[in-house]
Amino acid sequence: LLRRADGTLQTLDPTGRILGVLPDPTHTAGEELTLASGDMLLLYTDGATEAFAPDGAMFGEERLHQLLMSSRAEDPAALLDEVRDALTAWTGKAEFGDDLTMVAVRKE
Could you tell me if 99 and 50 are in contact, meaning their C-beta atoms sit under 8 angstroms apart? Predict the structure, then answer.
């Protein structure tokens, strides 16, 4: 997900193979992306969107999109904390049932 400095959200299509699944995967370049000053990029595994609430409801992509759009975090670490806190509140647990890997970067 790419939150542009102007507040718009751009979803990026996954391309290529999943990292770490095959011993010698080949990768081709995907979509070219240019970051402008103030843009924030959030990369995440499906553990973020497939986190389940106690009632069985999934966190989902739309909820993650809304979180990123409403976030005022300007620092990547703060954004990651905000997402993790939202997932912890959603699931009611500090441990998730699936892997959770997230990377956030911001262009100065």
Answer: no
